[in-house]
Amino acid sequence: MLTVGSPSSKPADRAGPTGAPIAVRAVSKWFGEPDAQFQALAELDIDVEPGEFASVIGPSGCGKSTLLRIVGGLLAHDAGAVTVAGTTPTQARATKELSFTPQAPALMPWRTVRRNVTLLRELNTRRAAHRPLSETEAIELLEAVGLGGHLDRYPRELSAGMRQRVALVRGFVLGAPILLMDEPFSALDEITRDEMRYLLLDLWQHSGPTVLFVTHSIPEAVILSDRVFVMARSPGRVVHVETVTLDRPRTVAMEDDPQFHQHLRNVRAALRQGSGR
Amino acid sequence: MKFVTTATLADPVVEPNDAERFGADRDGVGEDRPAPAVADGAPRPASRPLYRAAMFVAPAVGLVVFFTMWEIYVRVTDVRRLVLAAPSSTLRHLVDEPGFYWRNAQITMKEAAVGFAVALLAALLVATLMAHLRFVERATMPVIIVLQSTPVAVLAPVFLIWFGFSSWPKILVAAIFAFIPFVFNAFTGLRAVDPDTYELMQSVSATRWEIFWKLRLPYSLPYLFSAARICVGLSLVGAVIGEMYGGSTGGLGNAARIAQTRVLVDQLWGSIFVLALIGVAGNLVLAAIEARVLRWHSSQSRRRRR
């Protein structure tokens, strides 16, 4: 299906000195004024293996986006240690080890589809540690997600689902070994969302980066992931890690698999337990 | 002004509003279908040639009616020429003396254009500093408000004292007139960046310069253009006022002032007509540039909201 290039290095090489590409150790985060603080994250531990697709799921306000921003070096944590690609998140961000896909497509309205997906490539080029995809490779990815006929269109000319696909491809064009995704499908309708899961899996299987994916959809987390970290709020913490045993590549047919439904039940039970019900 | 997308099946086009910001139009309606709003020259349900022709000539009709009624009024009421000249006599006068008006128009246009450019550059510089440094913003705002609240036309004689009978007093008055809308809109535009896109750029440690050049400046362009529309007229007003009060030997403002003191009715109205023409031409040029530069912006959608 996808025939573009090859991953810049084997997953095992990417881990850096400490092993896991993402290692979060006893991380805590507080928000608010000194006299009225609330704890967003409480001694959180998460490890993501090289080439693993890991999801974080939890109720809104459980700190899953906060966690993603800490890992991405966009937010500082207050206690604990975070290692990303063998270094600090800020350092990893500076050398473009990370590719971040925000909740909104965040496309630039004055750039065409083609030039939106190559945006991250153009920025901060001096310190980039990895080779980004060439324009030809980027266009092949766009074709793979069905946008081949829309390369020179502006974002306002696209539907919401198409814009989100552009944003997905943009995340891969950077060629970063670690992808962080913050509920990229949350604004889409259920039908479009279903399609996007498999598009994302196609893109991921092709280059095999390590993914940390934040979502609030249980089926989405299960079908995409190798492991699902279930979080509870007040304060934000991991209450359960579900290891998904479904084979790769994942297919739509697996959604009828009893195993899949067992995973759904497990995650749901963990969420319920986390909220004290 | 917001960047609004219209990816819905709704027809006619939804009223652009804050919907996008709150995600209201991300519901995926119209999935996999290019938004209808962009289909070039989108055919209306019934494409009525007569209707379209009528829409095309409507602006001309408005102008013709306006000048015809003026002409009729002058002829019917037999108003004194000193009070109100007929458009036809002004036109005849303009045709008789094209050289005089061309010479003076060039002077005025040059002053207005240089003033416009000076205002734009100064505003961009000031707005950039304001957008990046909170202290500069707080320190500059009162000065701008003082400038805005002062009828800056009274500065024309001051500039005359400073610069003498050169074109600089007029250019400066024109620049000050245009500076205020430019600086306000540039500042708003530079600050109006989409927070998600900003975070996206930060996630790869984009430099401040990259964020300015690739994000802030493009986001401020629609704001700058809407300021420019106002400033074309304002810089012309500034140049003319500068010519009238800043000591002058040329320009249409000067021609009008002389016409007034010597009761040259034709020359007074001739100057007014040519000034109006320059203003209109300036706006048309600007609209053409805007349509080219802001092709991506929803304001350039072919279909207008009713």
Outline:
With about 280 residues, chain A is α/β, with parallel strands linked by helices. Chain A is about 30% helix and about 20% strand. Chain A has helices at about 65-70, 90-95, 115, 120, 135-145, 160-175, 190-205, 220-225, 260-275, and strands at about 20-30, 40-50, 55, 80-85, 100, 180, 210-215, 225-230, 235-245.
How does the SSE layout of this entry go?
The complex is a heterodimer of chains A (277) and B (306).
Chain A: E1 22-31, E2 38-48, E3 53-57, H1 64-71, E4 79-84, H2 89-94, E5 98-101, H3 113-117, H4 119-122, H5 135-144, H6 160-173, E6 178-182, H7 190-207, E7 210-215, H8 218-224, E8 227-232, E9 237-243, H9 258-274
Parallel strand pairs in A: 3-7, 3-8, 5-6, 6-7
Antiparallel strand pairs in A: 1-2, 1-4, 8-9
Helix pairs in contact in A: 5-6, 6-7, 8-9
Chain B: H1 49-77, H2 87-96, H3 98-132, H4 134-149, H5 155-163, H6 168-191, H7 195-202, H8 208-245, H9 252-261, H10 265-293
Helix pairs in contact in B: 2-10, 3-4, 3-6, 3-8, 3-9, 5-6, 6-8, 8-9, 8-10, 9-10
How would you explain this protein's 3D organization?
The complex is a heterodimer of chains A (277) and B (306). Chain A has nine helices and nine strands. In chain A, helix 7 (190-207) links the parallel strand 6 and strand 7. In chain A, 32% of the residues lie in helices and 22% in strands. Residues 3-17 of chain A have low confidence and may be disordered. The relative contact order of chain A is 0.18. With 277 residues, chain A is α/β, with parallel strands linked by helices. A six-stranded mixed beta sheet of chain A has the order 5-6-7-3-8-9, sandwiched between helices. With 306 residues, chain B is mostly helical. Chain B has helices spanning 49-77, 87-96, 98-132, 134-149, 155-163, 168-191, 195-202, 208-245, 252-261, 265-293. In chain B, helix 3 packs across helix 6 (168-191). The longest helix of chain B has 38 residues, at 208-245. Mean pLDDT of chain B is 82; it is low at 1-40. The chains are: A alpha/beta (277), B mainly alpha (306). The A-B interface holds A 72-74, 93-94, 96, 98-100, 102-104, 106-111, 119-120, 122-124, 127, 146, 150, 153-163, 174, 180, 187-189, 191-192 and B 3-7, 23, 25-35, 37-38, 194, 196-197, 199-207, 210, 214-215, 218, 221, 294-298, 301.
